[in-house]
Design a protein that fits this description.
Blueprint lengths: L4 H5 L2 H10 L3 H56 L3 H74 L4 H41 L5 H16 L3
């Protein structure tokens, strides 16, 4: 039947083959599941129609059987009351209902077989759909992991390249130049500070020399009272 075609087509192998050509595996997997869900709905409608046919024939079979049994009892009752003609007519009608029963029973058996087969196929579709859902979860996880790995690989492909290394070398030279300039400026400042310190010492007088000169004059005066 056409409604079961995708059940045969969407095997694990065919899905993996389609995924190889898909731009977005996750979207494709979701679409596959939506298609299968629609197929299941179509199949359920077909099964429902066949079940309705089965029930109709079953009802007709039961009605014919009831009439056969009813005419049998009526024929017996007619004979008990001595009405052979009525019994004969009841048996004749019973025969007609028996023929109808046999015909309806054959049609019912065929309808039931078809309904049972469609039920089994529908159950098979639902089982396959559940397997695909589980498979989809696994494939989605693999796809997401692959995307993450691809992104990392793309970033890493440009990480630590020659351009970056040369850039670091230039910055290292720049830092070294700045350090040298800072050191030179410091040495110049220290040199200027030393000269200023020596010149400043010429003018330094803490009073000791003056006091020493006065003491010398006093001592000399004692030695020479003139």
């Amino acid at each position: 039947m056409g409604v079961f075609k995708r059940l045969r087509d969407l095997t694990m192998a065919s899905i993996n083959d389609l995924l190889d050509k898909a731009e977005d595996p996750v979207k494709m997997l979701n679409q596959f599941l939506r298609d299968m869900e629609q197929d299941i709905l179509d199949a359920e409608a077909a099964v429902a129609k066949q079940i309705a046919v089965e029930k109709k024939f079953k009802q007709q079979v039961e009605e014919a059987q009831d009439l056969v049994e009813k005419r049998q009892l009526q024929a017996e009752k007619a004979l008990e009351q001595g009405n052979e003609d009525l019994a004969r007519r009841a048996l004749q009608d019973k025969k007609e209902h028996q023929t109808r029963y046999d015909e309806m029973k054959g049609q019912y058996d065929i309808a039931k077989q078809n309904a049972d087969r469609l039920r089994a196929q529908l159950d098979e579709m639902k089982d396959e759909f559940n397997k695909m859902k589980n498979k989809k979860d696994l494939l989605v996880a693999r796809a997401e992991a692959a995307k993450a790995q691809k992104s990392i690989n793309q970033v890493m492909s440009g990480f630590g390249t020659d351009n970056a290394a040369r850039g670091f070398d230039r910055m290292s030279d720049k830092v070294a130049q700045l350090e040298a300039e800072a050191q030179a400026a410091g040495e110049l400042k220290d040199k200027n500070r030393s000269l200023d310190d020596e010149l400043a010492k010429l003018d330094q007088n803490d009073g000791v020399e003056d006091e020493l000169a006065a003491l010398k004059a006093k001592v000399a005066a004692k030695k020479d009272p003139q």
